[in-house]
């Protein structure tokens, strides 16, 4: 199958002081259409930089970044991004936050509003469309961000530690919500986290990165199936071994980073 997203021999050095900083060196990776891939790796190894490259915010010094077989030239609605902070406009209602992008593109207001209400219902925010962001909890704000990212029907969603600031209970609910929306839409997801359990629950495949300059040092395809459940996954016969292995690998790379 043709890769939906690909980095081919990508290198990137930032012009930093006192010396340039090589963040990625000759890194390659590929995601199939509809795949859910999680990136794990030490702080500063270049995970967000990879998302920024795929989003089109940054360009590589060498190598290629491809989406749907074409070189990524600039950001576009087919590649959405969700950050740790929901970044909502405080002066706009929930509905206006969700519809902001499509309305800028002069899409029909009634049609966009109907789709936005549909997404707000899916993320459990029916009845909150006229609330202001300050009237919402952190988890509710991140639900708005999910609805906003999914509204334009992106082919790819890039998620940069989207649940990192949430409490454990809310995080679990958001993970389940994300999986449901992903299974329904078949969007290709590239998700960055530091949380190994989160990676195990969410991913089809985990990519472990080395310390900077970041490379993929291990790839683990999870055997849990797509129809998994947060309450039963830990009972899978391979869960403990895989968790231990991934934890060990991630800690090893983090130690290398510090030594
Ligand atoms: N635009 C930039 N200019 C200069 N340096 C940058 C720029 N963007 C990122 N960096 C540096 O590149 C390195 C990699 O950053 P990146 O955010 O990709 O790491 P990360 O793996 O996502 O880290 P974390 O897990 O801590 O979020 C860091 O040292 C960062 O300071």
Automatic annotation (TrEMBL):
One of its GO terms (molecular function) is ATP binding. Gene3D superfamilies: P-loop containing nucleotide triphosphate hydrolases. Pfam families: ABC_tran. Residues 7-236 form the ABC transporter domain. Keywords: ATP-binding, Nucleotide-binding, Transport. The keyword ATP-binding applies. The keyword Cell membrane does not apply. PANTHER family: ALIPHATIC SULFONATES IMPORT ATP-BINDING PROTEIN SSUB, TAURINE IMPORT ATP-BINDING PROTEIN-RELATED. Belongs to the ABC transporter superfamily. This is ABC transporter ATP-binding protein. The lineage of its organism: Bacteria, Pseudomonadati, Pseudomonadota, Gammaproteobacteria, Enterobacterales.
């Amino acid at each position: 199958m043709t890769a939906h997203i690909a980095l081919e021999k990508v290198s990137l050095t930032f012009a930093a002081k006192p010396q340039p900083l090589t963040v990625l060196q000759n890194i390659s990776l590929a995601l199939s259409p509809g795949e859910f891939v999680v990136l794990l790796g030490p702080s500063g190894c270049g995970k967000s930089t990879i998302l920024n490259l795929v989003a089109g915010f940054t360009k590589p010094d060498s190598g290629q970044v491809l989406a749907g077989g074409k070189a990524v030239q600039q950001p576009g609605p087919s590649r959405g991004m969700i950050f740790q902070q929901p970044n909502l406009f405080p002066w706009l209602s929930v509905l206006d936050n969700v519809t902001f992008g499509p309305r800028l593109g002069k899409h029909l207001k009634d049609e966009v509003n109907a789709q936005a209400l549909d997404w707000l219902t899916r993320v459990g925010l029916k009845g909150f469309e006229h609330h202001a962001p300050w009237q919402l909890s952190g988890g509710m704000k991140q639900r708005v961000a999910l609805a906003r990212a999914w509204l334009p029907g992106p082919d790819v969603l890039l998620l940069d530690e989207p649940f990192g600031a949430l409490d454990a209970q809310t995080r679990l609910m958001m993970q389940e919500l994300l999986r449901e929306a992903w299974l329904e839409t078949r969007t290709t997801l590239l998700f960055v986290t530091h949380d190994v359990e989160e990676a195990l629950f969410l991913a089809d495949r985990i990519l472990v990165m080395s310390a900077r300059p970041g490379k993929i040092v291990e790839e683990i395809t999870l055997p849990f199936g797509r129809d998994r459940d947060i309450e039963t996954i830990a009972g899978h016969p391979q869960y403990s071994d895989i968790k231990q292995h991934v934890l060990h690998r991630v800690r090893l790379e983090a130690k290398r980073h510090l030594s």
